[in-house]
């Protein structure tokens, strides 16, 4: 039926067979603006009311808080799961798939990583910051799953926004019978839905959580960020419990309200195409809940009322009128004056800059004219102090490669140092050019010319060293790749000494640094956020550099890049190389006593003849590394991956290999007395002629291991032929208990007898075997 009277709501309820009770018109300044009715007892009774009291209750018009909250939680859960599910599966494949071909990371994913890393303060996806190609290789399935982790939440979110805007319901809201309407009673529309979700809920809620996390000292703890975001979203929704209209904050921002879908259709359907008694269109209604009892019935409560839009107060009608001529003229004159003054200031500023540049050019030309033999040194020193020094620095660097006078070389060097770090790129070019000249004269008979070129090279080296020392800590990403800062092959005396210097972030790829001293220096530091482990960490890159005989004692090289680096005979004692990248590095004969290599990557690295006493390799990756003749007494290899490594003739006395993966390792003739292999993977390991006296093998996997000629106990000096004569009756007790030797190769009878006596497991052990 069509309702066109103020009492239409009462008639609509009557048509449905309901007792409508008493109706009352609502007036505002003597004008009828709507109707309210008093619900009689029994109309939609409250289930929680006392059955003994016949008391009317309110008709609930908005969706209950718990159903609205459950729908919101389910929406957020679906959105987050659509991203984290594929990402987690792809990450698992990336970290656990050992074999199979790997492909470059998809360019879209690489760009996404670069964009997300600064926002969430994550470590850089790629450590190469010099512009060289650096592409992570992942399994093909990881590419597919990670792409789904981007597409799925975007698609799901767009679909939810579209459904919310067009129908007022997403799928979770439909399940929980909750509908979102604009305050006009219509569906929200796409724009209002975007404002409600992206601005009101995610923008304000998650944005507040992110600001607290970012600037509250919680970076880079992502778990805390998630907790803050969840708490912020929960507070946004809980606001409905205290709001008089039961509206959450995001509903207030977007001008929407969430209601019970069934009740909304019951109360709004009779109002379609209805007009009031004054003939005004009643096209916007607000479903509200009364909070006070009326004088007509003190025990009855007011039901939802249908109220048209409030009229604009007469006191602000002037805001709708056009601006006056006087105000418009004032604004125009003010704009003209501001524009004119700004133009004059700009013109005068440009003229001042031109005059200053002209004076500097005149000064520069005057200095160039003074390059007579008697005034050249003074002019050289002045060049390094110009206010616009680029041209002067370039000229000084060129002179450094041409000058033959020793005193003037010193003057040029000092002028370049006075120019500051901006001189380093020019010094790098000069260093490389002079180095090329020196290589060309390697077999020349002109000794004087060769010595002069060596002096020029030393001048560039000293200038670079001074700048690195003076500006320690302020040289992030300074490019000194392929520079020669090491010792010369002749008697020319130069040694790079940068002890206790902050070199974090420096780029020294392919540089010559042999004989340099970096004792106590820093090669890794926090970025601008002053936090380690985030996207802007400053990591030194020494890939393929030469550091032979270098002094790196107590240096902080954590996470530094040293792949393919030559570290022969270097001193790394007490240095920190945790999580450093040393793949294919040459560490032959290095001294690394008490050095920290935790979680470092050392695949195919060479440690031949290295001294590694008390070094910590816990969690390190050393697949295919060569450690022959290594001295590593008391070293720690817990949970390290050392598959296919070569330890021939190494001294690993009391070394700790607990839970290490040693598949196919070669320990032939190695000293392993007192070593701990508890829970280690020793499949296919070669122990031929190794000394395993007092070694702990409990829980180790020995399938396919070769024990030919293995010593289990210390032999007596007077009876060297005795293979397994124990030094005491208690020696070896419990060291082999429960260890299965059935799959071990090349065990002889006496070894089996000893294994059985010490509690080992073998098919040839007799039930009554006793300890010796």
Automatic annotation (TrEMBL):
How does the protein's chain sit in the membrane according to the entry? Multi-pass membrane protein
Question: InterPro entries per the record?
Answer: 5peptide_repeat, Pentapeptide-BTB/POZ_domain, RDD
Keyword field = Membrane, Transmembrane, Transmembrane helix
Give the Gene3D superfamilies listed for this entry.
Answer: E3 ubiquitin-protein ligase SopA
RDD domain residues: 64-255
Query: Which coarse location class applies to the principal site listed for this UniProt protein?
Result: membrane
Which cellular components does GO assign to this protein? membrane
Has UniProt tagged this entry with the keyword Secreted? Answer: no
> Which Pfam families does the UniProt record give?
Pentapeptide, Pentapeptide_4, RDD
Instruction: Tell me the compartments it is located in.
Output: Membrane
Q: Oxidoreductase: present as a keyword of the record?
A: no
Which PANTHER family does the UniProt entry name for this protein?
BTB_POZ DOMAIN-CONTAINING PROTEIN KCTD9
* Name recorded for this polypeptide: RDD domain-containing protein
What organism does this protein naturally occur in?
A: Oxynema aestuarii AP17
